[in-house]
Amino acid sequence: MKIVAAALIGLNWAMAHAQVTQCQNTCEQSLGALATEGDATEANLAVRHQVTVTGRHYDNSVGSSDAASQGVIRSALLANRAALRPGEVLEFIPGVIVTQHSGDGKANQYFLRGFNLDHGTDFASSVDGMPVNMPSHGHGQGYSDLNFLIPELVDRIEYRKGPYFANYGDFSAAGAADIHYKSLLDESFAQVTLGQHGYQRGVLAKSLPLRDDVTLLGALEWMGNDGPWTVPEKLQRKNAVFRITQGTRHSGGSISLMAYDAVWNATDQVPQRLINSGTLNGRPFGRFDSVDPTDGGSTSRYSLSGEWHDRDSNGETKVTAYAMKYALQLFSNFTYAMDRPVTGDQFSQQDDRNIFGGKVSKSWNHMLGSLDARSEVGVQLRNDRIHVGLYETQARQVLGATRVDDVRETMLGVYGQSTIRLTPWLRTIVGLRADTAYFSVTSLTNSANSGKTNASLLSPKLTFVAGPWNKTEFFFNTGNGFHSNDARGTTARADPKTDDPVDPVPGLVALRGWELGMRSEIFSHLQSSLSYWKLKSDSELLYVGDAGTTQASHASQRQGIEFNNRWTPSDHFLLDADLALTHARFVNGDRIPNAVDSVASITATIKDIGPWSGSLQWRYLGSGALTEDNSVRSDPASTFNLRISRSMRDLTNRPSNVTIDVFNLLNTKVNDIQYYYATLLPGETAPVNDKIVHPAEPRSIRVTYRTSF
Question: Within 13 Å, how many C-alpha atoms sit on residue 209's CB side?
Fold first, then answer.
């Protein structure tokens, strides 16, 4: 694969030095000519070449992006690939793998660019302009729960990787994804899904014109699932979305109301030695059994948001605002009986918060001397008012409080960036971002941990884009980014369990990165991108197994190669092939636990062969060090997912279809996640260091019937 990548680079550079094609060097005179509503690259198209998007699935063609690792995924692709969980829509982003290490009501585990992102740290997600990541969260910094997502409503996913974009702040150093819902459905629909292991799901969605320029979209979802686990998961998920849109993509706005609620039991990760022995205290124990059958949780998310925009030939003004009410009660047991042999080590993490925020941005076309340019400035504000606690529990009954805090956290970000056409074949983007975080912590269990702190960072950004030559362009991106640390860590003076002195952590942690990239369409019907990147962090966040949390650790450095390909030889066939290789180390040379070395995905999609469509996906999560000395490594995981769909007409002649999804097609015994730490099982006399695993689900089949109305 490296040889192929090197050959492609050489071929493109050779052709780049041949005949230089004539480039369009004038600004677009009307933003109304923008290719697609909400295009991720809209803010800079005024100083780019006019391009034609060649497919309906991706907007990743030459001239459409500011980096080789940036792009847009359209709903047409989402409809043709199987997804086991809502959060797996992020796997459509090249190089991203999404797994789960506990119950399906909990946030997913994310992997990207050598990061075990835990539940979202260093990858920023948003849905319809509202951030998903939760700072100073009860279960982990940057917790990003996408289970409230209704995939059928997604219009597009705009993604970017690296800290190169001035309009992205906290948690976005490794990457970011903006998920946008549709304002208008192609057709209203009702669908029902039934599957193995008690899986049931129903979705009802309708869009209704209220006036010529006003549309109401409403959707309801209910889902239940027991999963393959010996202790039934009993997941119950209820979801609702109501959205009113007024005006056009040039001038108008929207108001959205969302409500989500879920409860579940959880089979958490278990020691490999227990699976190998097959018994626990004399009773049989299998891959899908629980050590503590009372683990689980409940969560809710309610939001009200609004957006207004106004675009004309000179630029755009956009205003967004949101308010959210969020809660989580989670019961986990990762060490079983090591700390409290009598009652067990179960603990509860609880989070109850109100969130308020918004963004104002203004962009405009102008001249910088004799050069065409487009500039954008923006202000982003977010305030979280949090009640967060950690409790010792047994069978979900509270035994005592380890730490309980009231937290007030405010993030203010101001940014500006300008895209400048230097020559007909070269443009640059210069940006600067300033962020300030204010933390206020009132500890209800130890006043020594109360206090107020603040932190500020400047993050410069710089991009050069050269070309296109022979349908090929080249990118250089560099910039600083950051993630915030848990507010409780910034004021900590005493360990909440032992009362020993501890040092506070910085509020904001800087990351610095750069990337060389290329995007090419020199071969007919083939879009290829290649990038080499580096990212340095002042402080790594590591998973701590005996606490079930993350903590700040050493500085780190990552570098890697990504090679992504989209081949569309006809309207009926699409082949995606993505490979990502990463080298991750602490600055002292030690390995970074859970930093996987490679990720790959190949998906073949067939569309509209008569009434038939389908896809077959191979997804691969490579091996990674589980210890800093690399003495223990995780096993790679390779699985296949299959989707087959048939369109038809129902008894009333309305369009309908039947879809069959088969997950883990070959029924491969692999793990979704693997750790290495000490645990003590009931009946053991001393803690044992061991691999701790959460098995991937076995082969399962789901059948969906959908009808339009």
Answer: 6
SS3 447: helix
Q: What number of other Cβ atoms are within 10 A of residue 213's Cβ?
A: 12
By the 10 Å C-beta count (0-12 exposed, 13-18 middle, 19+ buried), 589 is classed as exposed
591-485-174-39 Cα dihedral, nearest 10 degrees:
170
- State pLDDT tens for residues 204-252: 999 999 988 999 999 999 999 999 999 999 999 999 999 999 998 899 9
End-to-end CA distance of the chain: 48
Model pLDDT for residues 477-521, shown as the tens digit of each residue = 999 999 999 999 999 999 888 888 988 889 999 999 999 999 999
- Give the bridge partners for 649, in sequence order: 655
Q: Are 206 and 240 within 8 A, CB to CB? A: no
Q: Model confidence at 550, in pLDDT bands (50, 70, 90)?
A: very low
CB 156 within 8 A of CB 74: yes
Burial group, residue 210, by CB count within 10 angstroms (0-12, 13-18, 19+)? exposed
* Selection from 15, 24, 12, 70 nearest residue 477 by Cα: 70
Measure Cα distances from 276 to 136, 287, 625, 667, 694 in Å: 37, 9, 21, 19, 14
Cβ-count burial of 417 within 10 angstroms (0-12 exposed, 13-18 middle, 19+ buried)? buried
Residue 174 class from Cβ within 10 Å (0-12 exposed, 13-18 middle, 19+ buried)?
buried
Q: Determine contact, residues 462/431, Cβ cutoff 8 Å.
A: yes
Residue 555's nearest CA partner among 592, 586, 510 is: 586
